[in-house]
Design brief:
The chain has 1 helix and 7 strands, in the order βββββββα. It is an alpha+beta fold. A hairpin with an 8-residue loop joins strand 3 and strand 4. It is extended.
């Protein structure tokens, strides 16, 4: 009779995970997004995947793109939208 002892696995890293570093402060993990070329340069065309695995990067909560805002807390979402409105007003 064989007895298998299983160790509890550490949770798999995923989008929305958070970390705090001395140099960059709080950061959130987001999956990289592929964007179009030419006139559609800023339009997302899909998530970046290498060898069948998603590619992630760490960004500050205020630096997330509009397609990753759902990963922020409600208070961070409100601050992000306020920042985007200020930037839009500055352009005109």
């Amino acid at each position: 009779m064989r007895i298998h002892v299983l160790k509890p696995q550490k949770p798999q890293p995923r989008a929305g995970d958070r970390r705090t570093t001395k140099k960059h402060g709080e950061q959130i993990r987001v999956q990289d997004m592929a964007t179009g070329f030419g006139a559609a340069h800023s339009m997302p065309i899909g998530r970046v995947v290498r060898a069948g695995r998603p590619v992630f990067s760490w960004v500050s909560p205020m630096a997330v793109e509009r397609w990753d805002v759902h990963l922020l807390t409600p208070a961070e979402q409100a601050a992000w939208r306020e920042q985007q409105a200020r930037l839009a007003a500055r352009r005109f």
